[in-house]
Amino acid sequence: MRMKAIIERMDEMLRRNGYRFLAVQPKEAMVYYRQISNKVQVIVGIRCHDGFLVNEAMLIKIGNSLKRLLSGEDAQAFGIVSYSVPIEIEQMYILFTNKPLREKSVCAAMSRIWLVDVASKQLIIYENQPQDFYGLYAILEDVLNSPTENSQQIPIKQSKSRIERAGRKIGYCNIALLAANIIVFIILSIIGDTTDGSFMVNHGAMYPYLILGEGKWYLLFTSMFLHFGFMHLINNMVILACVGNYLERSLGSIKYLFLYIVSGIVGNLLSLYMEVTNDDPAVSAGASGAIFGVIGGLLWLIIINKGRLENLSLRGILIMIALSLYFGATTAGVDNMAHIGGLIGGFVFALFTYKKTSRRNLGGNR
Known about the structure:
Number of helices: 14
Order of helices and strands: HEEEHEHEEHHEHHHHHHHEEHH
Helix content: 40-55%
């Protein structure tokens, strides 16, 4: 009965902090709301159990219904005061569960969800979730610190609720790609000069005459792991380290690897086509085409996730793309066609391999 005791304590604390209770269906859901100026803060608690499994589609449906209810024509019936500016509804979900791993996938798919492991009285906040919601953190900490029935009062230092900041999953494929690029660079640096075009061509860099004249199409692949000098390597690896994990967490390691390779090859093909068309052959190498593919993949994921993926925003990724392409266009020796080709390749690959709707059926209703 620990869940019941925790929920009763939360009900008491929320009402004490100015929240009103709203009875809704399903019966497992508990809605609390309060209005501050033109904003209505809504907290939705849900009791999860084996006969009632929460999924993303269900939470979206509940959220949309509450928005219509609390900001529509009948909002005054619930004590909502109209202002000259539209009412804004802000929502936070709390899933009360005895099996937090079962509900973990819902937290990965949506934002503004916390888990309460009622068995251990543990608040679980994953890193893609907000760290507070208008003082709710302190309220829940007080709730979880309180002794439940069948429990004994213990000193506050020992009874403090444990907060698990669940780490983001490490992208092992991304780490492997970083390592491969660095290892190749170290080996080539030991045996020769990575800024020498002839040396790089002899060790896998891309050159139109070798591809079209001698049929060495494998250079489209090998050139992705070569870099002209230390700074070229560092610039690419820093970007890959910053953005790669986001995409691998969402796509999965296998799809991420294929996106990386396909994007790099597409970028090299566009570069090859432009060099031949303009009769301007050049030795080219680098991971930037593949990295732009990763950025292109993230762009699609952010778009389909309504403008945000973890702490990445649509505006931020568009600014990154614009600045990177501008830098490529205004800097001598940068193969911007490979960047554009990789960006398009990654976006299209993600478009066909990642669909948000496939993540909604995480559990069934009763």
